[in-house]
Amino acid sequence: MAIRITRRQALKAGAAGVVLTSPIGIAPKFIRPAKAAGLAPGMTGGPTGFDGAERYQYDETMSEGRAVEGMRKLKAEGKAPEKLNILMTDGAIGHFTNPWPPDGPTLQSIWEAETGVKLEFIPVSPEEQFNKVIQDVTTGSAAYDVYTFGYAAMGDLSEANGIAPLGEWIDKHGADFADPERGMPTPESYDMLYKYGGEPRSVCYDGDAQVWVYRRDLTEDPAHIKEFSDQYGWEPGPPRTWAECDQLAEYFTSKGMLGNGNMMSHFWGISTWYNRYVSKDNPNQHLFDNEGNPLIDTDAGIQATEEHVKSLDWSDKGGLGWSWPEYYGNMANGNSFMLGTFSNCPKFLDNSETAIGGKMGSFLPPGHQFGNDLVRRSTIYLGNNGGVSTQSEYQEAAYLWLQWSGSTRIFSLLTGNPGGFFDPFQLANFQDPLVIQSYKPYHVPIIEGTVARAVPTIAIPGQFAMHNTLSENLVAALAGEISSQEAMENTAKSWRKHLRKKGEDKMIELINAAKSGWSTVIDQA
Amino acid sequence: MMQRAFTSHLWRYALILVAVGIALLPVVWMTTMAFKPHTEWVSTPGDLHWLPREPTFANFEYIFTGETDAYSITHERTATRPIISSLVTALLGTAIAVIAGTLGAYAVSRFMVGRNLPLGVLQLRLFPPLAVMIPVMIMWAFIGAMDSWWGLSLIYGIVTLPFAFWLMKTFFDEVPREIEEAALVEGCSWFRVFWKITLPMVKAALASTTLFVFILNWSDYVIALLLTRKEWVTIPVYMNSLSSAMTGQMYGAKAALGLIAVVPPVVFGIAIQKYLVRGLTFGALKQ
Amino acid sequence: MLTPLESQGRKLGLYMTLPAQLLLLFIVAFPLVMQLYVSFTWWGPLDGTPWYMAYESANLFGNYGDIFDDSKLWGSIGRTFLIVAVCVPIEFLLGLGLAILFAEKFVGKRVFYSIMLMPMMIVPAVAGYMFFMLFQSTGPINDLLSRISGTEVEILWLADSTLAMISVMIADIWQWTPLMFLILLAGMVGVPEDQMKAATLLGANAWQRFWRIVLPRMKMVMIIALVIRTIECIKIFDILYVMTGGGPGVATKSISVYILDLTFKDLEWAYVAAVGLFILICLSVFAVLGLILMQRAQRRNETMPA
To answer: Which of A140, A318, A464 has the CB atom closest to C159's CB atom?
Structure first.
């Protein structure tokens, strides 16, 4: 499914949260007469025909150019396929098939014209995405050359022999994923999103750190400033700590809205809990200690869960049955005060189609204070990475496509495109005018700061099962069936059993290796 | 006495009307939803409109063309292909089940062969499909049947074989043997008897069995969910994609598709009312 | 000794059963062998080896031992049986009541009868979706309740553990009461009229006639209806999965949904094989019991004076 970028009849999001967002506010600004087609001097490929197209063009010294060149070489050697089969979620295919900017070309057409290799996207719903991948891997169907999946599934798919290691090709074709000026913001974040067990295993397509947005207009309203300050002793605005965050939630709930617009439901709500949990220690509240013992059933974990359950008072209790679009819908309608969610929220909601166009603000994640240190943390729980299927007959070709589409120039163009939900995370993306236009000037620096403060969740093999247990227990605690302590103890017990079953030594090693992906950025209180 | 008969009649009608009302309510809701524009999909309690205030075909337009002026989103997949897929696989699956079932049923009914079949096929029906899906997935991948028309048809044929077999067996059991025997005495071969005499006699029953099996195949969800990917996705699986995370539930579009999915089985089901009991009880009961 | 005609028939019979036999063998042989083999190992997709290499992680009865220690499994079995225990009797009683209403001739019977059968012909996934819409907190059920009660009702049907279960049950009852009705009505119509007339002449009132004559004659039919519905209800998946996906939490997770989760979330395929076989065996035992019940009822029916 893709968002169309032409002006359509105005729509209001429904009360239960049907979101039909249309980023119309963005589109018309780019509709200018097309410039004469042609590449900038010295460039060998890339998009043409719109203002600023030269920013996305490349020559053979650049990552994208080398990918195209590599592909042509493979083609000459007869090692390239007619077409590549790519499994991708419904909401992301638009990145490649929607013209962007509106007077520009589609990414698919650029690639096909330059390499002569066709692209076929096999759509899948986000809920079914991993099922289809694992089914293909285990049954040996060999239906895809490229899989996409959450970065945390890299471990699952590597162990299952489903995805090929990429290190050799990354070196050979000189990808710029880890480029200190254009690529990942920190070496830690490169480890987190590209590597499993020390080896690059997939190409990241989606930053997906949880970024906070709020109703700036409300905190600037003199009446609210006065009433809130009288009550809590500080002026309402972006909170620094979770305690402040909860005070804001409590206050705005008393004003007849959802003070806490966060995702609380099964599967989606895990990230809300994680955000609160991981900053419970300085510099990080890890999920496991160095011996592989779960830490979630310690005081920190139980406390985080109790606070999480308490925060349901400021949320919509019906939300336990929602998925993320309904939470977006509440924000869009003006029902929610704040929401820590995927970074594309302003991209889709801050426009004239919603009740909150021009009224949004965003802030760095809230944290916990330790003396003079303020530990602000966000988590990357889902996301989308592209991996090369080991069953593909054209693995290097499949990799080259990943390199081309995941490199910083093409990816900047890709992520700015409102036709899909892949979010920016590379340094170059945050400087890109089209991305800034789509994601809003006030929001982009916050995304960048949040990515730097983001930590991974569990990324070891079996993480799906571990997350599922955690989520079921959290929802049971929210529904009042069990206490927070029981929820954490049940989860910890199940995690221990899981590690034992999968071979503790190996798992502990992987858990500790993954700790290199945890952010160490500390703010001054 | 008259008075009492009248009141009891009144009661009967009152109760029946309530029951009919409940039976119809969800269907009516879906039908009107299919013609509602986006603004009427949800509403606040106490202010609900059962009939669309501004009836529209936008939902149908959306699922068949992938876009409509009424909505600002587009869908790359339209419903045409899934509808064809549902039709093709349900029809072929029905053919497999009815042919294998009819032949087998006749043989079991007449020749004292295949004694394992009655119970064997019944057991097929007993098991939750999900409990055996992993080996089936592996098998289907191995023979290259994933996401193919014949792979899905084959599994449908197998899954509905028990119904075809048992239904036809009870029909054949009822055909008086005297007619067949007379023909045999006159020198007809067994197969000729089956083909020219017995089969024409159970024509109506065969037609009902076919429709019944078709309804069952058409109703599948979980098998297609696991054994298709893109080309041969069926209606209920495609329906999932109308609730993509991007847009939430597309109530109207889903209802429009649901309406299309509901029509064939209901029409066929009413057409074969007479045989429904037999079908659903594996022939154990007549009506 | 077989006559030539009989042996000709035999031969033809073998040919004719061939397609059905092959289909049966095809779907039973490999899956059963594979399930059995894999269930004695710890093989799973994460091993990165094909299934036939599963012996590398053989553990004999480890998986079967785990079954008895798996509180999630027993939770889902418990919920499934709760659904069966609530839905099947209610469907039965409602179906019986409807059958009594429809037992006599009245104007419009055919039309009403057709409408009453409709729910069970609706694709279960679509039926699940219908009820998903109906039970939204902003949906028509709450609207009806609001109008009847005169206050604003905003019940969170699908977000509350108990109510979600009740919603699923209502949907199942809606869809399958017609089946009970259909079967029971067929049984009721089958009661010979002369018996009823004789009883009437002997001075039996309607209630006595129903209790003494109709009900005993219907025993067989009732058992068939109950057995069929129970077996189908244990497999409940489509309608439930579309409505709640097993949630909130695990509140409506049935056996089938649990197996799906085990398969694609937990990736414990060897364990799924063991659980699958375990459930097959339990259901088989159950089905045999049902068959025995049916046969016994049938025998008693036959010995009853007509």
So the answer is: A318
State how far the Cα of A226 lies from the Cα of A230, in Å rounded to an integer.
6
For residues A90 and A420, the answer to whether their CB atoms sit within 8 Å is no
B121 backbone dihedrals φ, ψ, rounded to 5°: -70, -30
Asked if B184's CB is within 8 angstroms of C5's CB, the reply is: yes
Instruction: Report the alpha-carbon angle A41-A42-A43, nearest 5.
Output: 95
CB contact under 8 A, B189 and C284: no
Average pLDDT score, chain B: 86
Which residues in C lie closer than 8 A to residue B276 (C-beta atoms)?
Answer: 117, 182
Cα angle B176, B178, B181 (rounded to 5 degrees) comes to 125
Nearest by CB to C17, from B19, B104, B131: name it.
B104
Q: Which of A472, A495, A496 to mutate to test the interface with C (most CBs of C within 10 A)?
A: A472
- Three-state SS string across B217-281, please? HHCCCHHHHHHCCCCCCCHHHHHHHCCCCCCCCCHHHHHHHHHHHHHHHHHHHHHCHHHHHHHHC
Question: Which residue in A15, A141, A421 is closest to B44 by CB distance?
Answer: A15
Tell whether pTM > 0.90.
no
Name the amino acid, one letter, at C172: D
- The confidence score (pLDDT) of residue C20 equals 93
Query: What is the three-state SS of A153-212?
Result: HHHHHHHCCCECCCHHHHHHHCCCCCCCCCCCCCHHHHHHHHEECCEECCEECCCCECEE
- Give A398→chain B minimum CA distance, Å: 20
What pLDDT band is residue A10 in, cutting at 50, 70 and 90?
very low
Whether A416 contacts A438, CB under 8 Å: yes
Partner residue facing B114 (CB), from C21, C34, C112: C21
Its ipTM equals 0.88
Cα–Cα distance between A406 and A151 in angstroms, integer?
14
DSSP character string of B148-199: -HHHHHHHHHHHHHHHHHHHHHHHHHHS-HHHHHHHHHTT--HHHIIIIIIH
pLDDT for A20: 39
| Cβ contact C45–A464 (<8 Å) | no
Give the pLDDT confidence score for residue A298 in this predicted structure: 95
Between A325 and A112, whose confidence is greater? A112
Nearest residue of chain A to residue C133 (CA atoms): A16
Asked if A487 and A478 touch (Cβ cutoff 8 Å), the reply is no
Q: Are C101 and B281 a contacting pair at CB < 8 A?
A: no
Does A513 lie at the interface with C, CB-CB under 8 angstroms? no
Instruction: State whether B138 and A126 contact (CB < 8 Å).
Output: no
With beta carbons less than 8 A apart as the criterion, state whether A154 and A461 touch: no
CB contact under 8 A, B258 and C20: no
Q: Which of A246, A253, A244 is nearest to A314 (CA)?
A: A253
Average pLDDT, chain A: 88
Examine the pLDDT at A23 and tell me if it is beyond 60.
no
Distance in angstroms between the alpha carbons of the first and the last residue of chain A: 44
A88: left (phi over 0), alpha (psi -120 to 50) or beta: beta
On whether the CB atoms of residues A29 and B260 are closer than 8 A, the answer is no
Contact (CB<8Å) A265/C248: yes
Q: Give partners of B (≥3 CB pairs < 8 A).
A: A, C
Residue C48: closest CA among chain A residues belongs to which residue? A160
Residue A7's pLDDT band, with cuts at 50, 70 and 90, is very low
Place of tokens 């010995």: C303
SS3 C94: helix
CA distance B147 to B232: 6
> Closest to C23 (Cβ–Cβ): which among B138, B157, B221?
B157
Q: Give the residue from B220, B217, B228, B218 showing the smallest Cα distance to B137.
A: B228
